[in-house]
Design a protein that fits this description.
mainly alpha; 2 domains; 7 helices; 84% helix
Length: 140
């Protein structure tokens, strides 16, 4: 246990917390947090072979995939929220900073973000346009 990386413990809980869980639950939590199978097995006190057998179980795998999806959605929501704050900060710097180099860097960041967004926009526009056209055909 001493060789467990700090990040794994931070994501997974302290060693005292782990002792209250079953091996399967420790394995599950370690895998959800992103540990590699071998590391997750070690954290869970299971053999690597047992960990792979658990992963072969459709119910365990389905539960694991659902938990990972929930985690991804949670992270994406937080990133979207942070993105709004970041845009507000860039806008404030662009408008109010007295330092020209800061305004220039803020302007570059805004333009780079805008170009990246427009790189995605054709896909979004195509999807929206096709949905509108489809709706119009149904109504007509």
């Amino acid at each position: 246990m001493a060789t467990v990386m700090r990040q794994e413990l931070a994501d997974f809980g302290s060693p005292g917390d782990m002792s209250e869980l079953t091996g399967d639950e420790r394995l599950f939590r370690a895998l959800v947090s992103g540990c590699h199978v071998e590391n997750a097995a070690r954290l869970a006190g299971l053999s690597t072979r047992t960990a792979y057998r658990r992963l072969a179980d459709p119910e365990f795998r389905s539960r694991l995939n659902a938990a990972r999806q929930d985690l991804r959605e949670s992270i994406l929501a937080r990133l979207a929220e942070a993105g709004h704050d970041a845009v507000d900060t860039l806008w404030t710097l662009l408008q109010e900073s007295e330092d020209e180099s800061i305004r220039l860097r803020a302007a570059r960041a805004v333009l780079e973000s805008l170009m990246a967004f427009h790189g995605l926009a054709p896909r979004v526009e195509t999807t929206v346009t096709s949905r509108v056209e489809h709706s119009q055909r149904i109504v007509s």
